[in-house]
Amino acid sequence: MPHAAGRPLKPAMLRGALGRCPACGQGRMFGGYLKVLPSCRNCGEELHHQRADDGPAYLTILLVSHLGAPLLLAIFMLYRPSAMSMLISFSLGAIILSLLLLPRIKGGFIGFQWARRMHGFGDEPHTPIEAQTS
User: Which InterPro entries match (predicted)?
Assistant: First the structure.
């Protein structure tokens, strides 16, 4: 597709994972923990087109469980801690890791959608905010 050229995937996903606009990398993407701003305050790129839906949550669960299960088994085999200490420590670890990963994965999803021009992130050029206020 010739119209898909010009939007590199890796930088857009990295910017998104850092919570920044996938277009300019300067403006914030999130107005809250997971609430996506309607547009970038720096470059004016519209971000309301995103359709991350449940994808980030599923990927977060997949990553946390695949990291936690082998670690749980290794800790148990090496140290034989009590069941209660394992339950508390791994529950807290899973919660904290999930809360840390979820916004980064959602930002990466949105960066991917922007780079691939999915769900309305099409060819239309965005108007910078400076040009709108003039």
Answer: DUF983
> Tokens 């992130």 appear where?
121
pLDDT band for position 122 (50/70/90)? confident
Among residues 67, 129, 74, the alpha carbon closest in space to that of 97 is found at 67
**Domain with 27 in it:** 2-133
pLDDT at 2: 47
Q: What is the pTM of this model?
A: 0.84
Of the candidates 53, 47, 55, 54, which has an alpha carbon nearest to the alpha carbon of residue 121? 47
Q: How far is CA 60 from the centre of its chain?
A: 10
Dihedral angle at the C-alpha atoms of 126, 127, 129, 133, nearest 10 degrees? Answer: -150
